[in-house]
Specification:
- It is a single chain.
- It is built from 14 helices and 15 strands.
- It is of the alpha/beta class and 348 residues long.
- The two termini are 31 Å apart.
């Protein structure tokens, strides 16, 4: 996969000539970078991410480059050749991007191939900031531990994780929202996310619909290559959706069924949806580890959502989320943004 740049650079006033690179893999990692928009507008900024639906949305109006997907978990799931080939392609693509753009500062939330962006940027003299994923409540991610020597600044998004990551500062962005949720429609939005297929989630939704457990209209996003055949006039099935349309659906949807990625969870909770999370499981070959089970259980204990793995659990979760008023939550990175702005001006 070749690097790609949009024709339209990021809009807004630029207060500094400093060149800022925001680098993250697809899904929740890059969504966390989008939360740093107030910071990126201060500089001549650009994104490096993967070619996902969200990546395409970013590239539509910002300077954006794509790198091939690569993750250590590919080897864990029995496909080490894909990992090696992706890494080799990413090494070359990352070098070309860094040589062309010459960033002064790189901010990354990981993971996988972003280590090569960090490496080349360091060799070209850039400062690097590693913000570990919001999904890591208990301890730093494997990417954070591996890439730590390349980071001039390490940021954890939970106190417990920072305590286990030498030299890290803690900035917890999680906040509850006190205002009532907006008016909703009888609509369910079910999404597998931007990066990996997830047929088990799709099957849970289709099965519950067939049993009459979901009377609402459904928009079902199944991922690239997923099965979209349906004869249900009130079930719209798509492989991918632009991020703007996802946000529009979340504004309207009463119910959301999603995987356990932080990006999907937080955007649904922010919109005041009733949320059922189906965490991807490593033992089922659905993800590279079980961090989704960790975060969804934490959110369930806080009363923010329900979780399900089986058709029986899914039916029970539907009953529970419909029986109570949903809680709203978001992430507020304003404290982190203020710290990063000061750090960049002092160090870069």
């Amino acid at each position: 996969m070749q690097s790609r740049i949009s024709d339209v650079p990021g809009a807004g006033p630029v207060a500094s000539g400093l060149r800022l690179c925001l680098a993250a893999s697809g899904g929740g990692h890059v969504r966390q970078l989008l939360d740093l928009e107030p910071l990126s507008c201060d500089y001549r900024s650009f994104f490096v991410t993967e070619d996902t639906a969200l990546g395409e949305s970013i590239a539509a109006d910002r300077e954006c480059y794509f790198v091939p997907h690569v993750a250590l978990g590919q080897a864990k799931l029995g496909n080490p050749l894909a990992m090696v080939m992706g890494a080799l392609r990413s090494i070359g693509t990352s070098f070309s991007i860094v040589r062309r753009t010459r960033p002064d500062v790189v901010i990354t939330t990981g993971a996988g191939s972003m280590i090569f962006i960090m490496l080349w940027a360091k060799l070209f003299g850039a400062r690097t900031i590693l913000v570990d994923s919001f999904a890591r409540f208990e301890e730093p991610s494997a990417f954070a531990r591996i890439a730590a020597p390349l980071a001039d600044l390490r940021i954890a998004q939970s106190k417990r994780s920072a305590e286990k990551w030498k030299g890290a500062l803690a900035f917890d962005p999680f906040k509850m929202i006190d205002t009532p949720r907006p008016a909703k429609e009888p609509l369910m939005f079910a999404t597998v996310g931007a990066t990996l297929p997830f047929p088990r989630l799709v099957d849970l939704v289709r099965g519950a619909r067939a049993k009459g457990q979901i009377p609402e209209r459904i928009v079902l996003q199944v991922g690239r290559g997923g099965d979209c055949e349906t004869d249900d006039a009130d079930l719209r099935c798509v492989e991918t959706l632009p991020f703007d349309e996802v946000r529009s659906l979340l504004d309207k949807a009463d119910l959301v069924v999603c995987h356990g990625g932080t990006g999907s969870l937080i955007t649904a909770l922010r919109a005041g949806c009733r949320v059922i999370a189906v965490p991807r499981r490593f033992e089922r070959g659905e993800h590279y580890d079980n961090h989704q089970a960790e975060i969804t259980e934490t959110f369930r204990q806080r009363g923010l959502l329900e979780t399900a793995d089986t058709p029986e659990e899914f039916a029970q979760a539907l009953e529970r989320v419909r029986s109570r008023e949903p809680l709203r939550a978001t992430t507020d990175p304003s404290e982190l943004i203020a710290y990063l702005r000061k750090w960049i001006e002092e160090k870069a």
